[in-house]
Amino acid sequence: MLIKIVLVVLVLYMIVNLFMAMRIMMKNDTSKGPMSKYIGRRVLTSAVIVVIILIAIGTGLITPNPRPY
């Protein structure tokens, strides 16, 4: 259950960074830093999510669906 909570928090963090980058892009405001900083955080967060999922499946903390249909 802890793994699922961590994954949900990371997905929410990724979405927040996406909207922060969108706000900078729409306002053309560079005082809060470059947009690439937020996009980079989003990409790093998604890579961490994939690694956590792979580790959790490998250790047996979560089990994948045996038949997807």
Automatic annotation (TrEMBL):
Enumerate the UniProt keywords alphabetically.
Membrane, Transmembrane, Transmembrane helix
**Top-rank taxon, per record:** Bacteria
Transmembrane domains' residue ranges: 6-22, 43-63
Q: What is this protein called?
A: DUF2909 domain-containing protein
Organism listed in the record: Alteromonas portus
